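Recall the central idea of this unit: under ordinary conditions, the amino acid sequence of a chain determines the structure it adopts. In this exercise we apply that idea directly, starting from the sequence alone.
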Amino acid sequence: MQLWLKSAPLVLAVLALASGAKATPIAADVNVSSDGVNPAAYLVSHEQMMYWIANTDAELTFVGKPINPLTPRSAQNTMVTYCSGRVDNVCGGACTVYNGGATCLSAPGTNCLSATNNVGFCDRSGCGGSCNQLASCGTRLDNGFCATPGTASILVSSA
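Accordingly, the structure predicted from this sequence is:
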């Protein structure tokens, strides 16, 4: 009995190797998480933003340049999605999707946002008052969103 217990790990290893089982990678998850090391962990990629847009139940309004992945240099635009609703860690409700270059977006009632480049969000219209940047998001939400209660405007820089 003692010999069997001592050799059990060896027997399991031999059986595992003999079975020919191989580990296979799984598909990448589109969720964004902050690792505290990657300085761009607060950003979502263009693909992640498009996936969220295609799969959300939020009411979307589009402003700025039309979203067309076949347009040359479209990755040089900044995409920002900002929403009025938030339930726990989910951002949604009525959302606006901006695609374009540097501007100040009027965004009264915004409670959460996500972007493909760093943006500023301010508590007054005209990108004034007290402003913070997405890079220093205090409360991260699902799918790369940041909680931004009290936001009235969003400062978009050039990509």
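The first strand starts at residue 59 and ends at 64.
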